[in-house]
């Protein structure tokens, strides 16, 4: 039977990666939309050529790879260019994610996407798991991980879907406010539950 898809989301620093890694260690096939977004612009992929034709060689690093930060800055202030880029990349990212999900041999597969709710992708998955943490913990863990300032983290928080909006679309909520061994046990509990589900396909 074709695996059903679990959408995994949560705000910045909520613990999506930590949770996804635990599922992966239990043998669940995991695809990360952020990784797919990087793969579609790797050297040799047609999207990179199109980006260079549009924005010039200056969006390339010396290595020939895309200067993602530079490109982000270039389109940041220009709505039309940003739209062009999104129109190019979004379908490619979706296809890349779908291609990798199709390789799954586990009973269900996980699509990790920070923007699962904002992008409407939640409609395409069988079930949604939201990793949720109190905002104070989210800020503390992210500033510790990224050496970012509290203001920077707050700015990203504000640009993401509001917590309530995300939780509205959740089938399951994992509140990641304890230590990592507790988190691992929760993931195992959810995994056992997910293995009993057959009807979550869409
Ligand atoms: P982003 O959206 O920014 O990529 P994320 O949702 O993937 O973040 P993680 O990178 O998994 O979040 O977690 C953020 C940081 O908090 C990491 O350094 C991670 O190791 C740590 N962390 C996650 N869960 C816990 C926990 N239960 N206890 C302690 N540290 C944790």
Q: How many distinct helices?
A: 9
Protein structure class:
alpha/beta
Question: Span from first to last CA?
Answer: 13 Å
Main β-sheet, spatial strand arrangement: 2-3-1-4-5
General shape: globular
- Element string (H = helix, E = strand): EHEHHHHEEHHHEH
Named CATH topology of the largest domain: Rossmann fold
Helix content: 40-55%
Care to give the gist of this entry?
Pathway: Cofactor biosynthesis; coenzyme A biosynthesis; CoA from (R)-pantothenate: step 5/5. This protein is of the alpha/beta class. Helix content is 51%, strand content 13%.
Detailed description of the structure:
Its main location: cytoplasm. ATP binds at residues 13-18. Belongs to the CoaE family. This protein is α/β, with parallel strands linked by helices. 51% of the residues lie in helices and 13% in strands. The chain contains 9 helices and 5 strands; from the N terminus they run βαβααααββαααβα. Helix 1 packs across helix 9 (180-195) and helix 2 (33-39) crosses helix 5. It is globular and about 50 Å long. The model has no long low-confidence stretch (mean pLDDT 92). The structure holds adenosine-5'-triphosphate (ATP). Adenosine-5'-triphosphate is lined by residues 10, 12-18, 114, 141-142, 145, 176, 178-180, 183.
Highlighted features:
5-stranded parallel sheet, 51% helix, 9 helices, alpha/beta, 202 residues, Rossmann fold, coenzyme a biosynthesis, binds adenosine-5'-triphosphate, 2 domains
């Amino acid at each position: 039977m074709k695996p059903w898809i679990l959408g995994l989301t949560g705000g910045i620093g909520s613990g999506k990666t930590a949770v996804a890694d635990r599922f992966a260690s239990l043998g669940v096939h995991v695809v990360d939309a952020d990784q797919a977004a990087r793969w579609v612009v790797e050297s040799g992929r047609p999207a990179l050529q199109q980006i260079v034709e549009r924005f010039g060689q200056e969006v390339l690093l010396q290595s020939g790879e895309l200067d993602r930060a530079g490109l982000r800055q270039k389109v940041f202030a220009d709505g039309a260019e940003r739209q062009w880029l999104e129109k190019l990349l979004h379908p490619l990212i979706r296809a890349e994610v779908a291609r990798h999900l199709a390789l799954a041999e586990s009973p269900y597969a996980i699509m990790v996407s920070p923007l699962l709710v904002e992008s409407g992708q939640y409609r395409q998955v069988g079930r949604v798991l939201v990793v949720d943490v109190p905002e104070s913990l989210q800020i503390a863990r992210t500033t510790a991980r990224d050496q970012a300032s509290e203001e920077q983290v707050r700015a990203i928080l504000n640009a993401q879907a509001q917590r309530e909006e995300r939780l509205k679309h959740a089938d399951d909520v994992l509140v990641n406010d304890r230590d990592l061994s507790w988190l691992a046990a929760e993931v195992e509990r959810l995994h056992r539950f997910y293995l009993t589900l057959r009807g979550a396909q869409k």
